[in-house]
Amino acid sequence: MMRRVVITGIGVISPFGTGNDVFWNSLSAGISATRRIQSFDPSNHDSQVAGEVLDFNPENFVERKEVRRLDRFSQFAVAAGKLALADSRIKPENLNPERSGAILGTGIGGISTLEAQCRVLMEKGPSKVSAFLVPMMISNMASGNLAIYLGLKGINYIIASACASGTHAVGEAFHKIRDNQADLIFSGGVEAAITPLTVAGFGSMKALSTCNDKPETASRPFELHRNGFVIAEGGAVLILEELELAKKRGARIYAEIAGYGATDDAFHITQPAPEGEGACRAMKLTLSDAHLLPENIEYINAHGTSTHYNDLNEARAIKSLFGEHAKKLKISSNKSMIGHLLGAAGAVEAAATALTLLHGLIPPTINYNQPDPECDLDFVPNKAIAIPVKTAISNSFGFGGHNACLAFKKYE
User: Fold this and answer.
1) Which is catalytic among the residues 45, 168, 303, 402?
2) Which of 52, 166, 194, 272 is the most exposed place for a label (fewest CB within 10 A)?
3) Residues 403-412: pLDDT tens digits?
């Protein structure tokens, strides 16, 4: 009999702040967390808005002497992992280390360390470059450091598939547990890439919103006047656990993960395939993996970046797969409130989807003032809807044509 996998712990660090409560309460209230960039002076950038985590203190999770040896994205990983462990009510000594692991995603990794040490190299020479540059910068240190701090000796790796990374990580962890390669995995994604170089790079691509005069309205997925995404930081770690073991210890179960699908467009380095063909196939594979029909799905947590082609092709993919049922679906984008967390986006949205099923409340797509006639679906505009949801999917799509999708069921 195939093993079932459930979510028993969640740790979120988002532009709303540190912790699950502030995340869910703000998300369901439709609050915007996007604002003018504060971590550096953005005055000479075309885009000057972001979703920054302003209340994060790494010393609440890591000893002071260790903080300087961890890039911010690794700090987020350790912190979110510790929050998830506390939320799960698992005592660390009760973890089976060899059957417990970590699979995380990140799109960019330790870019702030890389930028800082490049300046050191140029200004002071190679002898002054930090010996910690490489272990701080490389992407795998998100899951590596989490394993070190929590004693996880099982499967451990990082996934870097741009903005699909977090969803891929949760999906791969789900399959590892289902296939009996592990009993418990810390899965999710982290990102800390609000730096001058990253913002300049995305800005040069014309991918970022330039609504600098009203930062809180800059992210407007599926809305007619959307003009780019808002870069954001943070992350989420979900504890995925085999159902019978979770039941045996009396765990609180947020939701069941039921399916996972992944595809690639093989089309363009940044643009999605026409009509969302690859995204459609990813959703179709997910439903097949979960033994669900399109008409079984009630809610979609959309990738919904607030860029023209991404939103348009995601809407087309949904209509292609779901047909007439697409008109009955509730669809919303968390990015309208928190911006786009890049490699961490799918993880944070997986957490949001699980909380949606648990609470029976669908967060809205805010800043939705004028519908795009080509995106003619129900995007839960501006205000949350209280409605019981038993089945949902969450989409993530990344540069390089990466598409990933997860299916969730309410645990009963």
Assistant:
1) 303
2) 52
3) 999 999 999 8
